[in-house]
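Researcher: Dear colleague, please comment on this protein.
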Amino acid sequence: MKRPVRLPLYHEFLELFDNYEIQNWEAKQFWEKLNISQNNRNEKSKRLMYSGLRVLMQLQYLEVNPSISKKNIFSYTETPRMNELRNRTKKQKLEEIFSKKKIEFLDQIKDKENNIEFLQSLLSDDKTLEKYFINHKETMENDIKNIKSNIKLMDEILSK
């Protein structure tokens, strides 16, 4: 059974990967982009950052570029596997946001369909009222189409 690996500074590294492409970065670039100020670079944060880099290399998200690296200063470059991680992370975020939005949209559709049914019931009692309700009904039907279009767009984005 595979043992899960703990990545130190997990959230900080994920945010960094989400916002930057790593090409020939030395440790100082990671410090800058991780927003760990000079004052907060204590022994613990240094250990966490460097062990995080080691874990990322072991998992083959980063590699050391030997042609640019010096004796004790390594130059890190991301591997193609990093894009897989980015895409997975992006998809997870989008799924979370889209599922909440989809529930909200489906509730709006139900409400509008309920209103249309109500107008239909009024019209079944008296057809002469149609001229008063036609604009409202058309507006709600267009709103439903637009909402369904938004749901379809979210589904298309997730399927790519």
Notes: The radius of gyration is 27 Å. The longest strand covers residues 62-64. The helical segments are 10-19, 27-33, 43-58, 80-125, 130-159. The first helix runs from residue 10 to 19.
